[in-house]
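Q: For a teaching handout, I want to show students what a protein-ligand complex looks like in token form. Below are the inputs, and the small molecule is fe (iii) ion. Please produce the holo structure.
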Amino acid sequence: MVDHDLVVTFKAQLAMCGVKPGVLVAALTEGQTRQDYAQATLIATRELGGEAFHVNLPPRTAGAGKFTTGKTPLENNRPIVDTLKGVDLVMDFVGLLFSREQNEMLDSGVRILMVTEPLHVLKALSSSKDLRRRVEYAGELLTKARTLRFTSPYGTDVTYKLNQYPVLTEYGYTDTPGRWDHWGCGFVLTSGDDDGVDGKVVLAPGDITQVFQTYFTSPVTLTIEKGYVVDIAGDGVDANLMRGYMESFNDPRAYAVSHIGWGLNEKAKWHNLATTKNARSPAMHGHPERGVNSLSFYGNVLFSLGPNTEVGGNNDTACHIDLPMRNCSLWLDGETVVEAGRIVVDEMRAPGF
Ligand code: FE
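A: Here is the structure, written as tokens, with fe (iii) ion included.
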């Protein structure tokens, strides 16, 4: 079922991504998921004068019960990867992030937009050039920085050395060859040097675990030495869930500290997860919320664990946990960027914030 609203929404987004006559777009799906988005892509691309086709892959069964990162139905599917390397824009309804296949496509100049959210979230977090400007400014600041430190009222105090990895911007659309983005996002990220993260992170009630799609209700204290979590302390369900989930991967590299950055999308809401993660709700059109609001809400410090292939590193563990945190303060080379969850650099501030 493809309704008018869906096509209109996709048309606006594809236009932001530079779709016009002469541009070739591929819609990539797996199983029966997001078939309506693929059809909307085909119709909207046509309306913009471009050409489009749809690749539907068989659904994954391996890794059920876990959110495995970087393992996609494209693994070992050489003909499809080669085909997708020939298009201008891949609309990714599968989730190729962290995969070698995605990096290979980007290296060949394809731009990729990942789409994971229900329609009402895609509409609410529609892209803007102003968000792009503010995220790109953040990217410049982070690129220049050699150290990043962040703290929280619960006792977080952790420092990253930043020399090794590039900075990625996410502002929700992409019209740049070889660039990836994620519809609805608005944040900036990089990774610390391989052995360059030390300190303590205390996840507090109200912080979010993306992989469980829940809010923390009890503090969890992570001790970090040379880029790895060496201890997970806490008596509550949250600490036990984290320990159990991470142990289930049987992979010491799951304990590496992954990307770090901060959220800049004033349209994204911290509370959204509380109301819209239930896919059975009529408003959801069968798509559960996958957490773009949580990753992007204005002033969050986005801490994470697991792989670093996203920034070109070697850790390709399938265990990735994004942990958006509230009320943190963050400094780059001693200059304040976020103060108790508020953005304090004028060039990055959203209108009215
Ligand atoms: Fe992440």
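A: Two things your students might notice: The chain has two domains: 4-115, 124-348. The chain has nine helices and 20 strands.
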